[in-house]
Amino acid sequence: MKKRTAIIVLILMLAAMIGLGYLDYPIIRDTVNTPGQGESIKLGLDLAGGVSITYQATGEEDPSAQDMADTIYKLQQRVTGYSTEAQVYQEGSKRINIEIPGVSDANKILEELGKPGSLYFIKETGSDGTPNYEYNGVGFQLTKTLDELKADGSIVCDGTNVISAEPATRTDTTTRKYVVNLTFDDAGTAAFGQATTDAFHNGETIGIYYDNSFVSVPRVNEPITGGQCEISGQESYEEADRLASTIRIGGLTVELEELSSSVVGAQLGSQAIRTSFLAAGIGILIIFIFMVAIYWVPGLASGFGLIIYTELVIGLIKAFDITLTLPGIAGIILSIGMAVDANVIIFARIREEIAKDVSVATAMKTGYSKALSAIIDGNVTTLIAAAILGIRGTGTVQGFAVTLALGIVVSMFTALVITRLIMNGIYGAGVKNEKFYGRAKQRKMLDIVKRKWLFVTISAILVLSAPVLMLVNNSSIGHPLNFSLEFLGGTSTTVNIGEDMTLDRLESEVKPLVADITKDNAINISNVEGSKVNIRTRELTLDEREQLTGVLEDKYGLKTEDIEMENISATISNEMQADAIWATIIALICMLIYIWIRFRDVRFGAASVVALLHDALVIVACYALTRISVGGTFIAAILTIIGYSINATIVIFDRIRENLHVMGKASLEDVVNTSVTQTLSRSVFTSLTTFITVLMLYILGVSSIRDFALPLMVGVICGTYSSIFLAGNLWYIFRQIKGKAKK
User: Fold this and answer.
1) What distance in Å separates the CA atoms of residue 433 and residue 360, rounded to the nearest whole number?
2) Which terminus of the chain has fewer CB atoms gathered within 10 Å of its CB, N or C?
3) Is residue 452 scored above 50 in pLDDT?
4) What is the pTM of this model?
């Protein structure tokens, strides 16, 4: 590259960095200061606060695609009244998820949504002239069962015959009236036309019955035969809107049951955003200084490349309207640490080439070429883990998978394109002395094969510690791990009482209040953070949740937003456990197949899988020892470490594959030892940069994200150990078993 061209490239890279920073600044500013407004990144409910509900269609058979689409459409119309940002989307063949940001009373919303598919239009009198319903002084009530009304033909039509129900305002002379306009389908039009004709002549009403109560009993003022009618008598537009919404939700063709619901306060989310951005900033600064100190000019190029990488990730999250969750933030910060991995591999190769006394320009070209296969293989296997998380995970775990995958793809681009352009630009601008790029030093070869059984023994002890600790936990707390609500099912209520509560006070004061409602003494109460108290019970009904909320509000003078409640059915919890197991198995199988194909030797894949199982079990041991809550992010932690560890292992296996050809008749012991020694700096430096970023997240993050960061830190250390001391030895042992080891 000519000097003039090199200077232009550097100016363009600097302009790109400044330009991207200028575009990202309002995104970062608004996300930190005014989440959900301005240029803010779209936030998940765990950051923005709000209500999340999961429904499942009742019945053994799956509803048709059209029925599900109609249900989602009408639910979307219903929940838009709570928030214009509300989302309704399908999960699987018979589940519907509802996310409503900015609201805090899940019980109220669940009550107002009621039970879809249970709205009926009922004649006032039956075929025998007896009343179907009557006024009891407070409201109307049925005098017959729904089955009797259906058999008698007294049910005119149901909610499925309603095409639309909209509130409206009508002005007659000087009087403003609030009404609901209904439109029926063909079957509803015919049935309603005949029923209203009969009711008009008899001076009767037609009651609208929904979810076991009458929501309106309008008198028929004229026959309605055109398929459209107007319900008047509402005292306000809001009342008309509620009635219209009730009719819409009651007209769903699919009957739904609640599987889970949760309400999350936004205060924790705002704090998490601020501390996470701070953790990312400090992590980037430390990595920048570290890379420059170790690699000089290449390190400087990678530092600027890391800044551009971070800017690109933030911009792409905003551009693609990706929803950012708390684990998603962790995914971004983790990928910042992993982003320099490709650079470290390349720079090590460049220094090795310079040590062969070739020119710096040739060394850079050859270094990139030789590092390419390890970079691609390592990142593809990590992407496999991210893909499994995206497919098998739900909610926040999927958010983590998306940001992690995005980070991996962007990091490959910045390492192979941006950093290379910057480094070539610096070289072309006149910085050509090899002392600015470094020369690989002759290292004393590590003889890890000689001590292979020592490392295998250490690993066996670490692996066996997992079931031992789980047995200890099972005898002391009743479960092998501290399973969260997602794995056990039930109702979790977090209350910000506003004052510190001792354990004795919780047991003597709060627990009896809860037990009086649940009629069950199996209640777990604990302090979680500051003045917050967590109450875990069996799965409560909607009525019981409303009672508990009311009692706590009255007892401690709380507001609705002071109480966060999560309800998960046994169905969801059983699926979570199955997902955790299957996600790990599928990821291991996919990685085994990929490595087998790429390395054309199943022993590379087998050694990798055994090492990964070792890492996964050590993470399980960490959860068992620390008793960190095991929830949805448990799957993310396991698969992330598997993806991270396989990345490091592949770099070593790539060298073994290369050295099998380069080292000729050398023994397998020498091949393994040489390969591990050659990649040692990469293994240590990449682990260090990744560990630093996760450590910043652990130090500065909120409690829930620290519970995620700690296993990741343990996993980074364990993954580094298994890659250096275990994976190569396992491959060597497998080769010996096949009788192909060289003597």
Assistant:
1) 8
2) C
3) yes
4) 0.77
